[in-house]
């Protein structure tokens, strides 16, 4: 049992059924991360839970176990968000033209490291080499 106010918070969340849904959500997010699916979206959706755990463990409960796990969770989620933050770089452009969600898939034709196209499977790049080279020239 978690002592003090943090324990009361967890007991209250459990009493209204929220605690179990948060744990189910964390399990789904963990599975998505392990399968490398919707990684950036998963990390963003997990951040409110991460901050809540960090706050409760570090400042409210502050027992040795919680002092280890709270900051650790925030650090790991932060490092993963930083690792995938290149996909969010467009948010920092001063001006943007409107783009509908269904047109956003065009962003997968971005050039990655080594001149490969991000979002285009390697098999497709090898299969269709002339078209791949043409796309690279268009993006250059």
Question: Can you walk me through this structure?
Answer:
The protein has helices at 4-15, 18-34, 39-61, 64-83, 122-127, 129-139. With 140 residues, the protein is mainly alpha-helical. The chain folds into 2 domains: 4-86, no CATH class; 109-140, no CATH class. The protein is elongated. The model has no long low-confidence stretch (mean pLDDT 80).
Total discrete domains:
2
N-to-C order of helices and strands: HHHHHH
Q: Helix proportion of residues, in percent?
A: 55-70%
Shape: elongated
Distance between the termini: 59 Å
Largest sheet: none
Number of helices: 6
pLDDT below 50 for ≥5 consecutive residues: which ranges? none
Number of strands: 0
Q: Mean pLDDT, as a whole number?
A: 80
Gyration radius over CA: 21 Å
Approximate strand percentage:
under 5%
Transmembrane segments: 38-62, 74-96
Keywords: Membrane, Transmembrane, Transmembrane helix
